[in-house]
Design goal:
By secondary structure, the chain is α/β, with parallel strands linked by helices. It has helices at residues 20-23, 62-75, 91-104, 115-126, 141-148, 162-179, 200-205, 232-236, 264-273, 275-278, 285-300, 302-321, 342-356, 385-404, and strands spanning 32-33, 39-42, 45-49, 108-112, 132-136, 154-157, 183-188, 213-217, 244-248, 258-262, 334-339, 358-359, 361-363, 372-377. Strand 8 (213-217), helix 8 and strand 9 form a beta-alpha-beta unit.
């Protein structure tokens, strides 16, 4: 007889799930309450919060809140009903696509319900088994899952290693020519864990030697990078060389959903072939209206982005001056690298939250190698220099405890 399909879940809960009983509600699935802001309530205490992808501070902007409220009152959350192709299209959906195209300087745009599914589904739609994918080793999970669906060849190059990318393109070119296919290179504008940029300009330069198309996931770059916030391609002066540009609404826009921009014939193909869109309900009207308002504010108020970068420079300089390793971040994403076990990491975070009033994301194995701890800070335009100073002081204190072995004893300083 076959085994009970669910029997394995009693003993094998996965690399993260195996810690669920101890971690759930505190280290995983925490509940942050109150208005979205740098200071929120966690388990009854107000903490300084660095774990919100609210880069430009739009989540609680009064015009945004009013627009969201009025659009919900006017349309409800059901309208339009159905998938875009069948009955879920509207003038406002098309207006948003047109304005996004103008913002990122691409001919056409398709709206997507969820960023994760958009990347995965777009990759699946674009390539056939005759085509070859070449992608960065530190690509986001949505890219990895899209690549997994590919029935043809795929090659990975070490993170931002352009010399190795050339080698993979040589291999890919040979196979694609033999099979009568093409090549899709996939990378990110800003990598969300390290905060460094993809070497987009150097990759675009390779088009002079190799024939391929470039797909860039710029989830952390849209709204934050470039002179107008148009993204990492704008920042590096190579937006024209990006064939497909993905942006999310989940970060700078402080919303949900996303978009893909590119040549008209390619975007039109995606409209009629992206399974995650043609078989899913259209974005609700309040989301569309809300995105239009956010885009308007992003374009009219460059000071939001300027304030973000003032805070980013202050925080990152302060951390480096205090002796912390923040890697080679080139964006608002600010990782602080420490060394320690998972047990030490959990006690460190407990101390940070309970005694110092600072909430930030902790990243440990299996997401990163054993023995490493990353405390990941996401600055916003509504954080203050005082917030940064408090955090640096707290990090000094917990690092002293980490190095002295306090967190390895199972005991942390008494809660204040």
């Amino acid at each position: 007889m076959p085994k009970d399909l669910f029997e394995k879940f009693k003993d094998n809960r996965g690399p993260l799930g195996k810690h669920s009983k101890e971690a759930h509600g505190y280290f995983t699935f925490p509940k942050l309450e109150g208005d979205i802001s740098p200071h929120m309530i966690f388990r009854g205490k107000k903490l300084l919060n660095w774990s919100l992808n609210n880069y430009l501070g739009l989540a609680n902007h009064p015009e945004v809140r009013e627009t969201d409220s009025e659009a919900t009152r006017q349309y409800g959350l059901a309208y339009p009903m159905g998938a875009r192709m069948m009955s879920g299209n509207s003038n406002l959906h098309e207006q948003l696509e047109a304005e996004l195209s103008e913002y990122v300087k691409k001919p056409d745009t398709i709206l997507c319900n969820y960023g994760y599914m958009a990347m995965l589904s777009a990759i699946d739609a674009i390539v056939t088994r005759h085509d070859v994918i070449v992608y960065d080793s530190e690509s986001h999970a949505c890219i990895i899952d899209g690549v997994r669906l590919h029935m043809g060849k795929r090659f990975v190059f070490p993170h931002n290693d352009i010399a190795n990318l050339e080698k993979q393109l040589e291999r890919a070119s040979k196979i694609a020519e033999e099979q009568g296919g093409g090549i899709l290179v996939i990378t990110e504008g800003v990598f969300g864990m390290r905060g460094d940029m993809g070497k987009l300009k150097e990759i675009v330069e390779l088009k002079k030697r190799f024939k391929f198309r470039l797909f860039v996931d710029d989830a952390h770059g849209i709204g934050t990078m470039g002179e107008t916030g148009g993204g990492t391609g704008e920042h590096q002066g190579c937006q024209d060389g990006i064939d497909l540009y993905f942006g999310t609404f989940a970060k700078s826009f402080a919303l949900i959903g996303g978009f893909i921009s590119g040549e008209e014939d390619v975007i039109d193909f995606l409209r009629y072939n992206m399974r995650s869109q043609i078989f899913a309900k259209s974005l609700p009207m309040p989301i569309v209206v809300g995105a239009l308002k956010r885009l308007e504010l992003m374009r009219k108020h460059p000071e939001y982005r300027e304030n973000l970068w003032k805070l980013v420079h202050y925080l990152q300089k302060g951390l480096k001056d205090a002796g912390f390793n923040i890697g080679n971040t080139e964006s608002p994403v600010t990782p602080v690298y420490l060394k320690g076990s998972i047990e030490e990491a959990t006690n460190l975070v407990l101390d940070l939250r309970e005694n110092h009033g600072v909430f930030c994301s902790m990243v440990v194995y299996p997401v990163i190698p054993k023995g490493m701890i990353i405390l990941r800070l996401i600055p916003t335009s509504v954080h203050t220099f005082e917030d940064a100073d408090k955090t640096i002081a707290a990090f000094r204190a917990i690092t002293k405890n980490l190095e002295s072995g306090v967190y390895n004893t199972g005991k942390i300083p008494a809660f204040k």
